[in-house]
Structures
1.
Amino acid sequence: MTHFVLFAFFGAIAQLVDGTLGMAFGVTSTTLLLIAGTSPATASASVHLAEIGTSLVSGFSHWKFRNVDWKIVFRLAVPGGVGAFIGATVLSNLSTEVAEPWMAGVLLTLGAYIFIRFTLRPPRTDKAQWSTPRRRHLGPLGLFAGFVDATGGGGWGPVATPALLGSGRVEPRKVIGSVDTSEFVVSVAASAGFLLALGDEQLNWVTVAGLLFGGALAAPLAAWLVSRVPTRLLGSLVGGIVILTNSRTLLTSYEVAGPTRAVVYVVLSAIWAAAVAYSVRGLRLDRARAENATPEHAGTGPA
């Protein structure tokens, strides 16, 4: 029972982050399982089985809050499922140690781009013309994100969310809602690949049930939060999460000394905190300008 409650708690925290920022359920949950001594393939399989339920509840919640663009979901989900199935099969038979630093470098680059763009030059939501990215762009993105997600125990959100946010063509809350909703298909495909390659003997079903239960409980709250968080602040938060998460992976992969790693984490955290504060200040200034402009505009016109 204690084991179930513990992983239900971590599932709730992971889903709250994932549902709000569009990423990190798999990264958080898989890390906990690996620390507990679970093999990479079994950890990823357990997380993806739990994500079938959490992504279903999360997708429904995002749909209720109108955070979903169904064209994006369909164009991402099918190639994402193919990539996830292939990735699950590969991970079940091969080590991913060599690929991890490369993947982390790609994600770190995407995170830095989003972080800088939304912190310093956020898109103007009052003038932006939102449109759905084309199938030829979403197909390869879904295939790659699905493969990374299955082989890394997480990655669908960290790959797909920054790429779509970086295009500047899709409203941020709909990016997160659509990515979370399409993750259901990715989770089903990855789970099928793992079960075919590994069987179910290596899985701890109490762990799966705990992650699923906690994540499902937190999904509606996360969907509500994403519709309330401003675009500028959301971009800073997403970028900071991606940078910190993948910096840790790179530093660990290259066996950087503990004290040096601590300094890097402190510096990155300080920059992240300053960027969030800068975004909050910018939001307040924008609101003040909007409030001041309304009376001016109301007072103009023929006498």
2.
Amino acid sequence: MTYAFRFHQPGGPEVLKWEEVKLGKPGAGEARIRHTAVGLNFVDIYNRAGVYGVPLPSGLGSEGAGVVEEVGPGVADLKPGDRVAYGSSPLGAYAEERLIPVDRLLKLPDGIDDKTAAAMMLKGLTVQYLIRQTYRVKSGDTILLHAAAGGVGLILGQWAKHLGATVIGTVSNDEKAALAKQHGTTHAIVYTREDFVARVKELTAGHLVPVVYDSVGKDTFLKSLDCLAPLGFAVLFGQSSGAIDPLNLGLLAQKGSLYVTRPTLNTYGAKRENLVAMANELFEVVKSGAVKIEINQTYPLKDAAKAHADLAARKTTGSTVLLV
């Protein structure tokens, strides 16, 4: 028997229950892994709160790292003792142990420890598809990034700078502005006292930007459109302030034949070969030092409810890891 967090109804952090669960033997194409570290992400809050309508009762969390304990029939690429991590999986990472499809598991290379892996898989793979696939950032680009001091933001800022781009980032206070600047952001806009649209126009001499990466949603999205140059991309990959209102597509024509997309990691990483290629690129930029993964908060896994409350209250920066 092992323990895991489950929730039986949507709601606040208090709905998370630490329960004893029984794991069977891994089936064909499955492995049983023992977690050492689990990543905390805003999508966990969406799932727990019922935003995405997860079938209940449910586990929680889709990012973690640990050790393979046992593999099921037909599994040839993994063996007990292998260090693995994942960032795109069925829910259930908030657990001491779990069963997981092996096509979601990625072997960890030497030089990347378990805590770092748990902090970077979902966020780092998200950044990979955002800046290497959804809109391919290139040298000389100036881009706009909301929540530049968040977990995705700190990775994206560094990686985009490594590619030769100039990053304009929005943050809520001066402390987060300093943090974002330490991680690739060239210009940090404190949105609580500055109009970010006006600042983007000023910083780009009126040319605006080819892409906006927006994980905030309701509070920023329409203004994000005003920051885009003609034919620009509004990439909405989260909604920490709430869902955006229904969009009049005529606005996209009025504002310069803009593109809007709502991508997810599950789509980009659905095929095993794509997931492996994305992970290899992520591992490479981390091992090279071009992207540094900083874990700014850790909590025992049993304190997941407090971690959720702190994340929702924007008390955290960068990556947060739950230690098993």
3.
Amino acid sequence: MIENAIELKGLTKAYRGRKGSQPKVALKGIDLNIPRGSMFGLLGPNGAGKSTTINILAGLVNKTAGTARVWGYDIEEDPRNARANIGVVPQELTFDAFFTPREMLEVQAGMYGVPQADRRTEELLKAVHLWEQRDAYSRTLSGGMKRRLLVAKAMVHTPPILILDEPTAGVDIELRQQLWDYVRELHARGTTIVLTTHYLEEAEELCDTIAIINHGEVVACEPTKQLLKRIDEKQVTIMVAETLSEVPGSLAAFDASLNGDHGVTVQLNQSVANVGAVLAAVQKAGLTIVDISTRETDLEDIFLQLTRRQSGEAA
């Protein structure tokens, strides 16, 4: 029984530049273990190295150095078995315009050597809500339908690992929910899901573990709940009846700023101070509290802080 679905050690990729120029290093010795059965988020800004990592695992890009194992198989020493255990839903919508969804899945299953009796074309098309379009040319499908068809195509050989590279880009809210319902179902059956997305709230809701890549390096890799605890800040906004021209002196000890004519916003580090201390300071200033609202740290805050910090260090 393998412990990790994917194991990367010292994974490096450098692209050759023009003659006389330095190579472009896309991955700088990545070490990353993706546990079997996890819903794993791989996040990072554009150009961070996410797609390069996925393309190496899929056999589309050759690594420069390091090792990568998929379901226990080294992608270089045993590429056939490595690829047989992974399904990749690419970011780009690539189709043969004159193939129908049913034909496309049948051809894909044949390429993976799935016997006719074991093919799940009907099951997969129904699962992604495309059974009614089974005999339509793929060129006539909407962007959302094409995105879901790519998911079905990646699952024809029932791989234990499914990688989704920006799968909900350009998909409306209803279709996105349908897609995630199916992904959750696959995960419940034991499929390891690896997700890259620009929708941070999506990763926060779905993923049990998140890795953040920036400039070809892993800057964080932790369980989602643990990652969210790394920054214990809370934003507190207090609205008062009086008109304010400046931050009250009693709030000088806090990171406070005016919010309109009747509000004060405080950035609160919960390990140092609490909301009660802020309210006491407002009351000490003789102000009448009308309303209070708070906003907890979310994944976007952490993502921006980590990537900005690394960019600052790089500079």
